[in-house]
């Protein structure tokens, strides 16, 4: 069994405190856990010296089901090693779904079931979690519900009874999830419905999924993985390429952004600070568009954003950038994300209406609970906790009555480290942030992951129905979850 001791033996040891993307995190030193070449003293690739915006951003492949019935679409995926060019001219070994990096896209419809058989040909165990999905316990991808290495299989059933949502899937094998995701085990799952289809939002080739993340490399292209070394992961990727460009027409585009980083927060803006229109978040469309200059997404969160390139003449080059770069990171590297090149004109009949959807009214809550997230910040500390406890697969931390509506108050009691909070099974509504009601902006939609800066408190409301069973809630900064910042809830 994979245990917390496994991770600690791997060298997780808290040290000093530094920050990422404007957020602060404890440094952990995982010497001996990372790349063999790194341990042997091989040279590390300098991100500043990598040529920027020379690679075209690819689109992730859309999977086709091998069988469709009247109610169900059936897929097969194989988890396997693959080698891809991420940095120009260099090949990188990865762990992938179907040999694809970025991972594949599944397009699903509300009310139509999806069944996926996953075969794990990797040398490590895995557990595939469909992040943000309302699914039965046996298809949730629980941390200890493992697919054996070397050919093990598991079939996951996704009923898709929830409304449209921007979901994603990734490994969740406890103490392995951090490295498996870092090495490539992510993919996109777009769930749509009639509510979304009736709107004339940008569609087809103008509806583009983008997975954002960071990484660290040796000069030979090999990834360096060490838990908590986020301050050295200074190569920024979009759809599996380091600092790519993307050619666009002078019209509106819809970008479905997913932060697949282990720990990096992205605070995105266009170089000219022109308008971004956020139309959706984790659980689908917002009630109304949020017009802004910046979009913040923490690890695991999604942001559905429309950019209107018709304001730029053909020939314009404009960058999507990352704000608030800590002083220890190379600004010439981590401030850059994607370069958009306006190369042509195109007809545009899409619109972003003033109203996108109507969310049901919040009902009364019968239970109020409080949760404290904290990790050791002192030198030598190794723990990460929810309500003072590290994760134990055999312990039920929260008993919930089936059908109950509850309000959870979640606090990050660290002074320096950020966290975020992710619940399996349910989408929730954010009621308050730091005691102030949430009445506008991206947190007015359905959420499953919410960021908490040091000292922050959020209050969320969820209804626990549809399925009974044991599910987890945790920090979605993968290294924090792997260190124990996770707990079990049982709905019965």
TrEMBL record:
<keyword id="KW-0560">Oxidoreductase</keyword>
<dbReference type="InterPro" id="IPR045087">
    <property type="entry name" value="Cu-oxidase_fam"/>
</dbReference>
<dbReference type="InterPro" id="IPR006311">
    <property type="entry name" value="TAT_signal"/>
</dbReference>
<dbReference type="Pfam" id="PF07731">
    <property type="entry name" value="Cu-oxidase_2"/>
</dbReference>
<dbReference type="InterPro" id="IPR002355">
    <property type="entry name" value="Cu_oxidase_Cu_BS"/>
</dbReference>
<comment type="similarity">
    <text>Belongs to the multicopper oxidase family.</text>
</comment>
<feature type="domain" description="Plastocyanin-like">
    <location>
        <begin position="370"/>
        <end position="490"/>
    </location>
</feature>
<keyword id="KW-0479">Metal-binding</keyword>
<dbReference type="InterPro" id="IPR011707">
    <property type="entry name" value="Cu-oxidase-like_N"/>
</dbReference>
<dbReference type="Pfam" id="PF07732">
    <property type="entry name" value="Cu-oxidase_3"/>
</dbReference>
<dbReference type="InterPro" id="IPR011706">
    <property type="entry name" value="Cu-oxidase_C"/>
</dbReference>
<feature type="domain" description="Plastocyanin-like">
    <location>
        <begin position="89"/>
        <end position="193"/>
    </location>
</feature>
<dbReference type="InterPro" id="IPR008972">
    <property type="entry name" value="Cupredoxin"/>
</dbReference>
<dbReference type="InterPro" id="IPR001117">
    <property type="entry name" value="Cu-oxidase_2nd"/>
</dbReference>
<comment type="subunit">
    <text>Monomer.</text>
</comment>
<feature type="domain" description="Plastocyanin-like">
    <location>
        <begin position="250"/>
        <end position="311"/>
    </location>
</feature>
<dbReference type="Pfam" id="PF00394">
    <property type="entry name" value="Cu-oxidase"/>
</dbReference>
<protein>
    <recommendedName>
        <fullName>Multicopper oxidase CueO</fullName>
        <ecNumber>1.16.3.4</ecNumber>
    </recommendedName>
</protein>
């Amino acid at each position: 069994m994979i245990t917390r001791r496994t991770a600690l033996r791997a060298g997780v040891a808290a040290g000093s405190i530094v920050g990422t993307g404007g957020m602060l995190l404890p440094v952990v030193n995982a010497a001996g856990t990372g790349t063999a070449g790194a341990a042997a003293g091989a040279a590390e690739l300098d991100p500043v010296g990598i040529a920027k915006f020379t690679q075209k951003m690819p689109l992730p492949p859309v999977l086709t089901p091998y069988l469709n019935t009247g109610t169900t679409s059936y897929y097969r995926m194989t988890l396997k090693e693959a080698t891809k060019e991420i940095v120009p001219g260099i090949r990188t070994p990865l762990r992938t779904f179907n040999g694809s990096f970025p991972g594949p896209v599944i397009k699903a419809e509300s009310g139509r079931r999806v069944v996926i058989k996953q075969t794990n040909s990797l040398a490590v165990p895995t557990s595939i979690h469909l992040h943000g999905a309302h699914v039965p316990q046996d298809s949730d991808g629980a941390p200890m519900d493992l697919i054996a290495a070397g050919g093990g299989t598991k079939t996951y059933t996704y009923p898709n009874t929830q409304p449209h949502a921007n979901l994603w899937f990734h490994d969740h094998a406890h103490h392995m999830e951090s490295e498996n995701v870092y090495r490539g085990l992510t993919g996109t799952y777009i769930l749509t419905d009639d509510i979304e289809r009736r709107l004339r939002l940008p569609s087809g080739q103008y509806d583009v999924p983008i997975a954002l993340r960071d990484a660290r490399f040796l000069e030979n292209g090999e990834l360096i993985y060490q838990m908590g070394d986020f301050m050295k992961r200074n190569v920024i990727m979009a759809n599996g390429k380091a600092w790519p460009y993307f050619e666009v027409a002078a019209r509106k585009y819809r970008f479905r952004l997913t932060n697949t980083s282990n720990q990096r927060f992205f605070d995105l803006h266009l170089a000219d600070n022109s308008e971004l229109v956020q139309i959706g978040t984790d659980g689908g469309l917002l009630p109304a568009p949020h017009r802004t200059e910046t979009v913040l997404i923490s690890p695991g969160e999604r942001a559905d954003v429309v950019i209107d390139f018709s304001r730029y003449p053909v020939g314009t080059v404009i960058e999507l950038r990352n704000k608030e770069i800590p002083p220890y990171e190379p600004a010439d590297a981590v401030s850059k994300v994607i370069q958009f090149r306006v190369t042509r004109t195109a007809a545009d009949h899409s619109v972003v209406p003033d109203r996108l959807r109507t969310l049901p009214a919040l009902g009364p809550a019968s239970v109020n609970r409080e949760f404290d997230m904290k990790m050791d910040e002192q030198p030598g500390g190794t723990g990460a906790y929810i309500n003072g406890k590290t994760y134990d697969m055999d312990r039920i931390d929260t008993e919930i009555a089936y059908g109950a509506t509850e309000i959870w108050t979640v606090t990050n009691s660290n002074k320096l480290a950020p966290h975020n909070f992710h619940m399996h099974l349910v989408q929730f509504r954010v009621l308050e942030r730091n005691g102030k009601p949430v009445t506008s902006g991206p947190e007015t939609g359905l959420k499953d992951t919410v960021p908490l800066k040091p000292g922050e408190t959020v209050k969320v409301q969820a209804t626990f129905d549809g399925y009974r069973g044991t599910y987890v809630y945790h920090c979605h900064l993968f290294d924090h979850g792997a260190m124990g910042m996770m707990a079990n809830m049982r709905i019965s």
